[in-house]
């Protein structure tokens, strides 16, 4: 599996060409910060369609802007890059992945801030194996584990951990690391539909699950809707290699697969116009996923597992206790039992909560205050 991961990472970097690193000199007298994260958005800052692909693209631009305002020059390197870490005495190392570890080792005296975007990697790997084994049993397939994270001590090396997630995410970390963690709420993509508050047909549900389908919990959802052909499932997202073949015996006319579509596309709008409920049976996330947040922002009621539940989920959605067929059935029965007025109330609460708490301005302010606090506490 490590060989497969190295091949995938190499392919990713080949596809990026010369977009593996980006340097920002704000003032020659400023100290330097090294960011190990995504780098390509800096080469497409004026391309709104490109930046809208994922909220992390707008967020990394905010990061660089904040570090500049706080008196840093910035060197961004893609976390998968194999390039040499620059021979610059960095004052702070920020980010994730192997290049975070490499830069920390090369700059032992730097402030080290790990940026957690998922659950602690050992917990994550355990869930990947567990859910893949279960999927293979249920669908008589033999799919490999996907998105396993190589053993590393990035979180252990860090002085601080800035974590996208919720309280569940914190509990996936070893107990001795939890005191380092501060949560931050991610942003959502800028596009928002003018949604109708009125309840729609309760028989239509949307599932958004791209790369890492099995980890997103598609197995129990597909199984449930295969058995309930009076209900419709609309699946948005890229289908992983081998998954379509595995689930094909379970596909019927009530399960519609659209593939990947941008959040602002006509296809996504058409699906959202049909559905009041999003179902996400994910086994591990870094808190509420972008799919959940963007759907909620557009008035879709979330049905989610603990790892991807926003705070106060009971007010505007439903919390499944696990990713299982039994929990999916309970959740759908809950949705079908809601009256028109309750649905309309939860749709509005869902949209308002996300718009107020998961926007780029909120993220930018929180990130600025967090980094400034670290700088002040270290006397820099």
TrEMBL record:
Domain of life: Bacteria
MF terms (GO), sorted A to Z: transferase activity
Alphabetically ordered keywords of this record: Transferase
A matching Pfam family: Glyco_trans_1_4
Name listed for the protein in its UniProt record: Glycosyl transferase GT4 family
